[in-house]
What we know:
By secondary structure, the chain is mainly α. Helix content is 83%, strand content 0%.
Amino acid sequence: MSSRADEQSAGATEAGKAMLGYEQARDELIEVVRRLEAGGTSLEESLALWERGEELAKVCRRWLEGARRRLDAALAEEEGDGNPEE
């Protein structure tokens, strides 16, 4: 089990450099939470998982904020185009 945590920790640095897609980050975050809730990891492993979870949550938040901005811009454009659809 330790080797998997080591692999994920090593991959965390690389994944932090490359932008993860929303679904990929969300799925990995779900796995991190599952492992933390299951327990049985050392304090060091738990801290590494927690830190990774925080990084993944930030990635998800950025994607959702970007989606919100795009939606708001599209709605503003639709309202401002001066073409009532009635």
